[in-house]
Amino acid sequence: MMHSFAARAARAAASTKTVRKASNVAVLGAAGGIGQPLSLLLKADPLVSGLSLYDVVNTPGVAADLSHCNTPATVTGVTGVGNAEEALKGADVVVIPAGVPRKPGMTRDDLFNTNASIVASLAEACAKACPNACYLIISNPVNSTVPIFAETLKKHGVYDKNKLIGVTTLDVVRANTFVAENQGKDVRDVKVDVIGGHAGTTIIPLLSQVPSTSFSDADIEALTQRIMFGGDEVVKAKDGAGSATLSMAYAGAHFTSQLLKALDGQSGIQECAFVESSVTDAPYFSTPVTLGPGGVSEVHGYGTLSAYEQDVLDKAVPDLIAQAEKGIAFAAK
């Protein structure tokens, strides 16, 4: 007999020794290359009490497989085109990696026509089924899909800028990894803020602000380019077999976990994220944000930039504006 998502989550929460805020997480695109490892990591997160998986195919098998993991989170799976609302009822956080992956030679923008339609339809389902949830957008191109999601929520009168977040954490994860390698440091001791957007030259790592580091001009150029185009590195290495799925799942799970901690009442949690912003002329922009009980509680600036970083930023802002406008125009159709 099928029990409700909320009832199962309540039982899972009651079964834990420490009473904490029960968080129900839905993953849309859960059977895909990002969705499966992301769902596995979330199943292991102690702050996830209910995990609801949705995809157009293969979801029951993924849900059955994950349900055998001996962690408290209960798992359900919903499959089929147009059935997302069933998976979304009672969700506190919705993580969306749905869409087609990049193939060799494709830019994130090449994905736009296919993924824009997918994201718009999922935003419709979210607006109807869980209008008060926090939405974490992974589906590329993020610089355009976040504005599409926002415009769709606005049509339904349920848009809250603090609860719609584009996940750019993979850029930070790459930056931390590459800088640690370059500087001979333990990666756990490195924290690089990455601002801008989540595509190519809109990705701006603030290497000048990383403490206890020393970069040559050549280092800065090479590291910045590698962080900007790290996704291409993976697409090429996989030789037509996919894009960055495992590292994206890791990054997505990290951000989700940080948000769950904030929803649970932990203070002082900061992550870089792509949100509605007045920091630049771009309507959506990634900078460090503080997470709180209602999603994003504060959007921060980016501090003092080097001349190199300022030049990259000046070139990126017009692109970010154009990519947001592309998403807004799509949603208006």
From TrEMBL:
Residue sites binding substrate per the record: 102, 108, 140, 174
EC number of the protein: 1.1.1.37
Biological processes, Gene Ontology terms: malate metabolic process; tricarboxylic acid cycle
Catalysed reactions, semicolon-separated: (S)-malate + NAD(+) = oxaloacetate + NADH + H(+)
Residues annotated as catalytic: 198 (proton acceptor)
SUPFAM superfamilies: LDH C-terminal domain-like (SSF56327), NAD(P)-binding Rossmann-fold domains (SSF51735)
Cited Gene3D superfamilies: Lactate dehydrogenase/glycoside hydrolase, family 4, C-terminal (3.90.110.10), NAD(P)-binding Rossmann-like Domain (3.40.50.720)
Keyword line: NAD, Oxidoreductase, Tricarboxylic acid cycle
The Lactate/malate dehydrogenase C-terminal domain, residue ranges: 168-330
The Lactate/malate dehydrogenase N-terminal domain, residue ranges: 24-166
Matches recorded under InterPro entries: L-lactate/malate_DH, Lactate/malate_DH_C, Lactate/malate_DH_N, Lactate_DH/Glyco_Ohase_4_C, Malate_DH_AS, Malate_DH_type1, NAD(P)-bd_dom_sf
Annotated NAD(+) binding sites: 29-35, 55, 115, 138-140, 248
Pfam families per record: Ldh_1_C, Ldh_1_N
GO molecular function: L-malate dehydrogenase (NAD+) activity
GO annotation, cellular component aspect: cytoplasm
Family stated for the protein in its record: Belongs to the LDH/MDH superfamily. MDH type 1 family.
PANTHER family: MALATE AND LACTATE DEHYDROGENASE, MALATE DEHYDROGENASE, MITOCHONDRIAL
Assembly and binders: Homodimer.
Name the record gives this protein: Malate dehydrogenase
Organism: Pelagomonas calceolata
Taxon lineage: Eukaryota, Sar, Stramenopiles, Ochrophyta, Pelagophyceae
